[in-house]
Amino acid sequence: MAKFRKVHVSFWDDGFVETLTPEDKYFYLFLMTNPLTKECGIYHITKRKMSWYTGYNQESIEKLLKRMCESGKIAWSEETSEVALLNKLKHIDRLGKPIMDCIESELKLVKDKSLIKQVSKLGSKEELLSLYGKYSS
Fold it and tell me: pLDDT per residue over 39-73, tens digit each?
C-alpha cells in the first residue's frame, strides 16, 4: 500500500503523549512510522532492528517496549517478534476496497493471532471488526 504513514498533528496534544518522556515519545512515533509498519497495525520487527533504526541499545529497547505495553498502546509478541499498535483501527479513516484488500492480505501474514484480537478490541467500524474477526481465531 502507501509508502508513508500519516501522523495527525493532534498526536502532540494527546493526553497520553503529553505524559511521555522525550525518549518514549520518540519510540512511540517510531513504532507508528518505521518502514516495516503495516496498514493493519501489526508487523514483524526484531529488537535488533528497532535498536538499529532508533540508535537505542538492546536494554533501552526492552524497557521502552515494556513501558509501551504497560501503557496499553501496544502489544508485543516475544515469540514472533511482532508488535501491534492497539488503537490503529481508530485511525483508519478510509475504507475502500483497495484498503480492505491490503489489510486482509496483511492479516493473513500475522503469526500471533492473539494480536489481531487485541487490535480489534478498540475498533468501532463494523467492516473492520468483521475482517479482523475472520483472522483472530
Answer: 999 999 999 999 999 999 999 999 999 999 999 99
Task: Give the three-state DSSP class for 80.
Answer: coil
Report the C-alpha gap between 17 and 9 in whole angstroms: 12
Non-local CB neighbours of 111 within 8 Å, separated by 6+ positions: 44, 77, 80, 82
CB-count burial class (<10 Å; 0-12, 13-18, 19+) for 92: middle
Spans in the chain with pLDDT lower than 50? none
Question: What residues have CB less than 8 Å from 65, skipping those under 6 apart?
Answer: 47, 50, 74, 76, 83
* Global pTM value: 0.92
Q: Cell 503469526 maps to which residue?
A: 111
CA dihedral of 33, 3, 9, 96, whole degrees rounded to 10: -120
Dump the DSSP string for 1-29: --S-----GGGGG-HHHHTS-HHHHHHHH
* Buried-exposed string 60-76: b where 16+ CB fall within 10 A, e elsewhere: ebeebbebbeeeebbbb
Beta bridge pairs of residue 82 = 44, 77
